[in-house]
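Box 3.1. Reading complex inputs
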Amino acid sequence: MFKNSLAVLLVFLTYLAHAHVEQLDNIEVTETKDFELPLSRVERASVVKKEKLTKERVEHKNAVSLAKAIDLEPGVQTTLTCANCGSQRVTLNGMRGENTTILVDGIPAYSSVSSFYGMEAIPMSGVALIEVMRGAGSSLTAPEAIGGVINLVTERTDQNKFSYLVRGGERESFNQQFLGVYGTAKRGTLITAQTNQISFFDEDNNSVAEASAQNQKAVFIKHDQKLNECLKVSVRGGHQNLELIGGATEHFRNKSYPTTLADETSFENGDVRKKFTGSLDQISDWIRLKRMDGGGSFLYHFDGETNVKGSFSLAKQEQYSVYSHGYDYDNEDMFRFFDMKVNRLVGEDHLFTIGVDHRNEEMNSNSKFLYQVNDFYSDSFTFDTLGFYIQDEWFISDKDELNLVLRFDNMDVKWQDQRITDNHLKKSVLAPRVHYKRSHTDALSSRFSLGVGYRAPLTLFESQHGTNEEGFETEINELERAETFTYTLNYDQSVRSSAFSATLTQLHNMAYGDENEEPIKFKNASETMSVGTLNLLHIERITSNWTVESTFDWFMMPDSYKEKLPIAAQETRARFISDYHFGKNEFVTTLNIIGPRNLKPYNYDKNYNVLSEDPITFEDIPSSQKNQTSPLFYTIDLFLQRQVTDRFRLLAGVTNLLDYTQTKYKESPLSWRVHGDHVHLDNRHIWGPVQGRVIYAGLNYQL
Amino acid sequence: MKVLISLLFFSNVAFAHTAFNGNIKGTSQPCSLHIQQVYFADNIEKPENLRADVMASLEGDDHHISHGEEFFFTIKPASRPNLFSGIADNQKDQLNVITKAGSLELEIVDSYAVKWWHLNHFHSAQCVNLKRVQE
């Protein structure tokens, strides 16, 4: 009996260890495990809380980019940071977009600069699963992810698969996704491509679009090969193109920056809600993005107890942009990442990992207006960080698991413009991290985590597109640093799954653009900010073919934090999803409810509808202040699909069925914004949807 | 009126280099207006032909100083009383000089407002509480 028990225990520990070796080998890469319960959104085996979003769920949303796919998931917000330029940033746990790190198959692939517009460029074709790990310290190799990490898990290559999906609908929306996989257990190749377009939205017909038109093209190739029983290698490469045309409703591409900014004479009666009468370049943003990236990894098993894994990532992203704010801004961002680690099973209950990683980023910006015509500071920089880490995964018992990490980083930022005050930031950080998982019963488990994140703020462009025509100054003296404490309670049964999590993040030295300075100053905040989130997710299988899901989110942040955000964050919200299968059909209804907010702490009190000028004193006189509260609102999305044959299915849907936009609520994002002694046209009065209803239909052929 | 204008004309020298000091509205930062020359256009002594070459200086406006400019205008009577206006040579910067009520000439200047072109947009400032100082 004892021997049998010991044997079972050994098998279990070996299995656990194997699972964790695999997990560590791939850092955050996971595949759907057999032991997972079908309803659970949280990976049960992981000591780090890992929330999953399947490809099917992404399709239900009619999402073609990561920014749209991930929006409204627990603790996640996709924020449109400016209506004209179309930049969408994904925020986790209420932290800003630059605090979110994107991994592709577990390997960092985007910098904070390249993800500014890059979130809209990341295609969903070829992505099998999205994993979200929230909180500082949630990834071994991404200490800068103060908000957390999003890992894109691409399709497996040990299969044969062909899929072509095409969707089209209103607003000239058109999306094609192609996926081809040819492989065996030993080797396989994946090729995927995507094209996507959608036109602008001008809901108040004032000739200024509230949502930009987009064109996107992407291709991605991956090859995996087992060279022998010990060695497995994987290489990948991709190319993405993104074009955003904002403001003008005539697909106007402003080849050069406007020499005269919009003023009160540019709108009827100086009212941004009325017809625009100025020249198109005064409202137009034109952004083009060209990205090439590649990466790879190898995994070598020395024996059953030790393996080594190396991975690398390279990305070159070029941005060309012309803004209605009156300047041009181009940059080239080179990102390089390398990681090497050894995993070793010590005894029966300890799995040690020791590793080193290196990250390098070089960003060179150029601007005719900012740097050549005017002699403003350039934000070009080089960033280098070398990190060492050691991790112990301790399987204390079959109910308790502890993960301890100690990480050391040496970070070095050099701003190339010598005129920047103290243009060199060099810091070393030693940071611990603890994750603990307790399985109370087979169904009930708790996770505690305390993680530390730190990030070198690099450029104001990480959170705003250079802010305005007067450039900005950099005065960064400290790293952003955060500690996140998270508690999660999970309850999983065959017909229901619940997850509750509470997170508190203490953010120090927050980097932000101080708009009280002219020009705007990019600097560290002196106060520590405490940002809390509460999330509740419940999934219930009511019948064998009907599942409902409800999510509740609360984001709590102090006013001193809100005023430094580029746009107003959602503070309370709920989401209900009904997924009903009947015959060969599936019908998904999603109801999103966003709670009311006081917008004043977000600096929205500087936004007005009407501008006039006193003819005697020349004073700009803004009037009709934009609403300082946003109402409770809700949106509904529908998705219907029918499996016509084994290989062929039809799909259709409506996003934003009720056609609710803040513009139709008489609140266009467009505003006159008071900045110092003058007032300028801006498009950041954003609190609700700016894209109206889109009805679409499509078909999918799959082999 | 004619007598007054004649006096003004013949006292050009007295008006030359007349300066007024004040502060930028809402701050204690100094600003000034320098009347460099007063004359009649085409030598026709009519009120509407009154002209003055002036320099407006916003010494205390940090934002302005960073641009390193002073403003030179030729002003003339505007369509409303106690107001003299001018447009700079760049055809963009504008100046409004407001005199004391009842004062038809530039002896008692109350305030001025200046609007200047900066890069691709306008800034403006008001200089108030102007007091005459002899240069």
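In summary: Chain B has three helices and eight strands.
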